[in-house]
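Subject: Sanity check before I submit

Could someone independently write out the C-alpha cells for this chain? I want to compare against mine line by line before I put it in a report. The sequence has 360 residues.
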Amino acid sequence: MPELTVVVPTFNEAGNLLALASEVERALAGIDWELLIVDDDSPDGTADRARELAQGNSRLRCVQRIGRRGVASACIEGMLASSAPYVAVMDGDLQHDPALLRPMLDALRGGRIDIVIGSRHVAGGGVGEFSSHRQRISGLATRLSRAVLKADLTDPMSGYFMLTRQALMQCLRSGVSAIGYKILVDLFASAPRPLRFVELPYTFRARLAGQSKLDSKVVWDYLMLLADKLVGRFVPVRFLAFSAVGGLGVGVHLAVLALAFRGLAVDFVTAQIVATLVAMTFNYIVNNALTYRDRRRRGWGFVTGWLSFTLACSVGAFANVGIAAWLFERQTFWVVSALSGVLVGAVWNYAVTSVYTWRK
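---
Independent answer below. Compare away.
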C-alpha cells in the first residue's frame, strides 16, 4: 500500500505528464507513493497518455471521467480512489514544485498537523511570473474567502496541499460543495472542527506546456462556492444563480418589449410574445453556460433543452399569474400577491428544468 497518493486533476495536460512523473519520482525517492491522474476526458488524449506511461511505471494510475467536469470534484474522486494514509493535490502543469512534497509529508508524519499547504505568500514563497492583473484577482479572491474560512491562511487560493486521510474524510462527511476549482477553501469551510495546518513556502513556476484554464467561468464557480458555504444550508445555490439569471431576464424582456412596442410600433400582444421568447432564450443560454455548466447541453441536446425549458417556463408563467390573481381577489395586498406569484413561478421553473432540461 502506498504511504502517499499524489492526486493530479487534468484537462488537456498530455504534454506535461512525462515531466511531472519524473519530477515526482525524484522528489519522493525512498517513499512508497503513487501518482493518480484524474482526467476529465481531455480531447488532447491526456488519459491515453497517462495509461501509456503507466505501462512502464506501476506507480502511475489514471481515472478517466466521462461526462463530468470540475477540478474540485475530480480531486475528491481521486482522493477517495486512494488507500494511502496521506493524500496530496497538485496541478499537472508543473507550476507546483514537486520538491515540496517530501517536506509536506514529513510535517504530517508527526501526527500534530491535519493539512500542509504550499503557500506563495509566506516568507520564502513567491508568485513567479504572475501578472499584476492576476495578482489583483487572487488578492480579491483571498479577501472574499474570509467570509467562509475557519482559519487565517495566507494563501487560501493555493491548489497545492497534502492532508491526512482522517482529516479528509471528516471534511467530506461534513458536506463539501465540490464546486469549481478552489477545493482548499471548500475543505476548510466544511471541516467540522478547525483544521490544524502549517504553510510551507514555494515559488509558483511557469507552465511547462498547454494553456491556463483561468477564465470568467472560474470566477463564477468561485462565487457559487462562497454562496453555497454561506447560505447553502437554507437555499440551494443553484436556485440563487437561477433566480439571479431570471432577474437579468426581466431586464431583457422589458428592453425587447420597449424596442418592439415603442420603437417599431408592433402591437402590444405581439411585442409581449416576442419579448417573452427572447427573455426565455436569454435565460436558457446563460443558465446553460453558468448555472448548469457541469450539465451543459450541446449540439442537438441544446435545441431540445431549449424546447423543454421554454415549455416549463410557460407553465411557470401561467402559475405566476394564476397565484397572483387568486391572492389579489382575496384582498391580499397587490405587492404581496405579485411577489407570491413570482416566487411560485421561480420555484416551479427551477424544479422542473433541473429535472427535465438539465437532468444528471
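---
OP: Matches mine. For the report I'm noting this point. The chain is about 55% helix and 10% strand.
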